[in-house]
Structures are given as structure tokens and as C-alpha cells.
């Protein structure tokens, strides 16, 4: 009787994932948590075999969540279930201690496959991530570092964004118009092929 915990701040995602697991895994006992604080509380109540974890959670901090869970529950299997681009972030989270990475854009059958694979005490790699890793191995990281494409000003603004500065704060610090900083921020996102600051930070870490 596998015990599974689904962790996501979106109720509809928890509900749908729970239904999929209950219908596809015999005798599965599925619990839900909507924040990282609740996750730790629930994990302390009984032994779980698998945690399906969104990495963008209230009260959580990406890799740190993995570290905390691993420290307290070293034998638990962790499947990252994220809207982040798995080709960019999948391998990083596997290196950080996850047992699998699954995109929220995936289909129902792949969710079933991922959960069953981890419950067999195996690692899970999606077809997309397998191909990405194969390409990386073949190319031996021949691709250009996208951070090197940033100008000095863009790199400066990127560093301030990483430190948590707002657009208005950056504009004041660099004596620029807010609209100018917004344009720089948009250009940085385009060059790094990210859609938010969290993804930008992850990509910087990937190439650092």
C-alpha cells in the first residue's frame, strides 16, 4: 500500500494528480499539501514512499526544499512536478537530490509512468529529458553560454534582479528611467530564454 504525498499550491493540480494516482496505482493512499510548511507537518505524521513536489511553492525555496526533505526523510522518493522547462532545469534538480523531474505539460500516461517508476525504487527520466542529456553528452557542452550574450549594462541589471531589487529600485540606483530598466529586463529574459526572475536565477546557476 504505497503512501504518496502530492505537494502543490494549486488545488486543481492536487485534485487532478490525486485522481490519476488513485486510479492507476493499486491501494494508493494519497495525501495533499498546499504549502511547504504543511508538507513537513504531514511528512512527520507517517512514512511516505513518494512525494510529488512542485518547486515553486509558498514557504519553500527550490533546492532548499529538497535538502530539507532529504535530511529528515532520506529514504523517500521525490518527483519534481513543475511548469519549469525540463530541458533547462530537469538535470539540475536530479543533481540536487530529486529522483525524477516531470513537466506539468506532460500527459496523464507519463504521470502514471513516473510515479510507478519511482515506486519501484528507480530513477525517472522523461523521454524529453533523456534526449536532452544525450544531446548534451554528444555536444559536450559545445553550446554558447547565453549569459555571455549580455552586455555590461544588462549583466549589471541582471545581478541586481538576482539580489531581489525591483525595477524601480534599479532605476533609482542606476539613475535610469523605470521604462528603460523594464526594457533591459525584457531583453535579458529574451536572451536567456526565461520568463521570470526565478528561472533567470536557475539559468545563471546552470552556467556558473
Automatic annotation (TrEMBL):
Gene3D superfamilies: 3.40.50.2300. PROSITE patterns: HTH_LUXR_1, HTH_LUXR_2, RESPONSE_REGULATORY. InterPro entries: CheY-like_superfamily, NreC/VraR/RcsB-like_REC, Sig_transdc_resp-reg_C-effctor, Sig_transdc_resp-reg_receiver, Tscrpt_reg_LuxR_C, WalR-like. Residues 143-208 form the HTH luxR-type domain. SUPFAM superfamilies: C-terminal effector domain of the bipartite response regulators, CheY-like. The modification 4-aspartylphosphate is found at residue 54. It comes from the Bacteria. GO terms for biological process: phosphorelay signal transduction system; regulation of DNA-templated transcription. Keywords: DNA-binding, Phosphoprotein. One of its GO terms (molecular function) is DNA binding. Residues 3-119 form the Response regulatory domain. This is Response regulator transcription factor. It comes from Chitinophaga pinensis.
